[in-house]
């Protein structure tokens, strides 16, 4: 871009990539935030009332929803009413100039504005156009895509909760986040293809497919083994010990995933003979006889507190960890030198936010812009998008 009114270039591996973000709520905004962290220039297109998550509160920081703040850093906002012919024309010009367009409207919902893949790619053949839906663009196109629905319909909720209790949702919108990650992966792969061939393409992600691949071993149990997994609380169907176990004070996650780790666990607990017991020699034996083995381990764990056991077991190479609240999780990350909190923006606009999860040795993530106010950059973006002479992107 050469015009002074164009969005400025950032650093990072995606420097110079312009993303037109027509997505709302979580999966799409999460994906575009990750791209922004990696240097892409992201223009967040919002309706006149703004992204729904602006109103999802409490909690708040000042009078702004922390939900919105959590997935929208690094972007510029322009409010466009696509039902208005002038605004729709501005939106189409943004799509024509973009390297990437991300949307999560109902499949086919942008066609009436000339913003569907066919229309956009006709004017911009190199565009990587990413669509995120709940259940795909085929027979499931008319089913609204909400994470809670997908947790239920995919089978995840049947796996979550106590064996004798009701099914539970995960504590976060896990498949929205997973689909956002899949969208980002698809976009990056398509950009690589475009770099090699000059050809853009349509990348489609849906929450249900993300869910089924994300169920990993449980999906494989059904697809490859013909087994329908069931709810086991915090237990693992194939590994033991791999669950919380009580100590003298709090529960401790113990995850001895192989025979060597189990031997080390028994040594630290002062019961090395248990590792040599033929009943518990192999993982399959320990899993089959978990009700016999669990009380043996619990008796020893009851002699110390969870944090003391954590120090001893980790030093011996046994995977384990305390069960924290969110503040404890951040404190643990600080302890490990992960610097989990970064600040984006300056002065009154400065917002603490969670660090990008990927570390680059040569092109680190950047945190240039705080989550934008609605239409904060509308004037400058309209000026750029309505000028007569096109700029190179």
From TrEMBL:
State the Gene Ontology terms under molecular function: CoA-transferase activity
Record keywords:
Transferase
Is-annotated flag, keyword Signal? no
Mention any Pfam family matching this sequence: CoA_transf_3
Q: Which residues cross the membrane?
A: none
Respond yes or no to whether keyword Transferase is given for this record.
Answer: yes
- Supply the InterPro entries for this chain: CoA-transferase_III_domain, CoA-Trfase_fam_III, CoA-Trfase_III_dom3_sf, CoA-Trfase_III_dom_1_sf
Please report the name of this protein according to its UniProt entry: CoA transferase
Organism this protein belongs to:
Microbispora hainanensis
Q: What is the lineage of its organism?
A: Bacteria, Bacillati, Actinomycetota, Actinomycetes, Streptosporangiales
């Amino acid at each position: 871009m050469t015009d002074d009114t164009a969005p400025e270039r950032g650093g990072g591996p995606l420097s110079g990539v312009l993303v037109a973000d027509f997505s709302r709520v979580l999966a799409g905004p999460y994906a575009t935030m990750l791209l922004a962290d990696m240097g892409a220039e992201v223009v967040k297109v919002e309706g006149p009332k703004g992204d729904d998550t602006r109103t999802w509160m409490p909690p708040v920081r000042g009078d702004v929803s922390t939900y919105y703040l959590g997935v929208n850093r690094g972007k510029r906002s322009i409010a466009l009413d696509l039902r208005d012919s002038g605004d729709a024309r501005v939106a189409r010009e943004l799509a024509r100039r973009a390297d990437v367009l991300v949307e999560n409207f109902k499949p086919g919902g942008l066609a009436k504005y000339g913003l569907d893949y066919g229309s956009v790619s006709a004017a911009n053949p190199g565009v990587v156009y990413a669509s995120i839906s709940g259940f795909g663009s085929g027979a499931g196109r008319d089913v609204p895509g909400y994470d809670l629905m997908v947790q239920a319909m995919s089978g995840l909720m049947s796996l979550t909760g106590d064996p004798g209790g009701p099914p539970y949702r995960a504590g976060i919108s896990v498949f929205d986040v997973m689909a956002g990650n899949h969208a980002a992966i698809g976009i990056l792969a398509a950009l690589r293809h475009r770099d090699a061939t000059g050809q853009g393409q349509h990348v489609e992600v849906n929450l249900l497919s993300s869910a089924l691949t994300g169920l990993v071993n449980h999906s494989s149990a059904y697809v490859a083994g013909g087994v329908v997994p069931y709810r086991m609380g915090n237990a693992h169907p194939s590994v033991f010990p791999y669950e919380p176990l009580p100590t003298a004070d709090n529960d401790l996650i113990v995850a001895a995933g192989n025979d060597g780790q189990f031997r080390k666990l028994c040594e630290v607990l002062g019961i090395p003979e248990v590792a040599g017991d033929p009943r518990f020699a192999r993982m399959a034996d320990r899993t089959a006889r978990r009700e016999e083995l669990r009380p043996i381990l619990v008796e020893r764990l009851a002699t110390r507190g969870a944090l003391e056991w954590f120090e001893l077991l980790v030093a011996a190479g046994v995977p384990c960890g305390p069960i924290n609240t969110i503040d404890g999780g951040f404190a643990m990350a600080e302890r490990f030198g992960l610097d989990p909190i970064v600040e984006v923006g300056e002065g009154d606009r400065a917002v603490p936010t969670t660090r990008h999860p990927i570390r680059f040795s040569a092109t680190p993530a950047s945190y240039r812009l705080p989550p934008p106010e609605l239409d904060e950059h509308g004037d400058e973006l309209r000026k750029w998008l309505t000028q007569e002479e096109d700029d190179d992107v």
